[in-house]
Every structure is written in structure tokens, then in C-alpha cells.
Amino acid sequence: MSHGHHDSAPSLHVHPKDPAKIRKVWLTAGILAFFTSIEFVCAFTMERGVLLTSIFVLLTFVKTFYIVGEFMHLKYEKKILIWSIIIPVTFIIWLIGALLMEGGYIFIERASVNH
Fold first, then answer.
1. Is the C or the N end of the chain the one with fewer CB within 10 Å?
2. Which long-range contacts (CB under 8 A, 24 or more apart) does 55-60 make?
3. Are 55 and 86 in contact (CB under 8 A)?
4. Could you tell me the residue ranges of all domains in the chain?
5. pLDDT band for position 3 (cuts 50, 70, 90)
């Protein structure tokens, strides 16, 4: 029984090579790297506080919406679908923020009642 041997190594070929798609991937990576570099510079040059945290949160949302728009192709969908995702997420984020703020007030009220 003879076993066949292949002399050539397997290779991967992508057909067709689309320069526009390759350029779009590099552009997306560049945009995300730009926003990440802003975060990096802010992290090492600014004092810790509300401003730095706000910058991080804002840039995180910008990158999140860009990633969702590009990689999930949401940017190319109908506007009503985009709004049906963005509006509930916005309200949930607002709800979390409101609950965090209101949750802190209970400790202030307890302290004022106990004194």
C-alpha cells in the first residue's frame, strides 16, 4: 500500500483581493487607534477626577458606536432600526446613572437623621 506525499505546502489565496475593503479595514483601525491614543495621553497627563472620567466615558461611547456601526454593519441599516437600538440603550444608561446618584443620597439622608 503506497501513501501519496505532496511536495507543495498548502497556501491560502483570497480571491478577489478588494483594495477598497482592505483600505476600509485600515481606516477603521486607524480611527480606533486615534481615539485610543487620546485616552492613553489623557490617562498619563491629566489629574484623576471628574473631567478625566468624563473623557473616558465619552470616548468609550464614541468607539462603541463606531464599532457597532462598522463591524455590525448597523451604519448601513435603516434609520429606524438604528434609533430603536440607540434610544433604549440611552435610557438604560441614564437609568443606571440616576440610580447611582440617588443611591448615594440615602447615605446622606441617614447621616442627617442619625445626628
1. N
2. 59/35
3. no
4. 18-76, 78-115
5. low
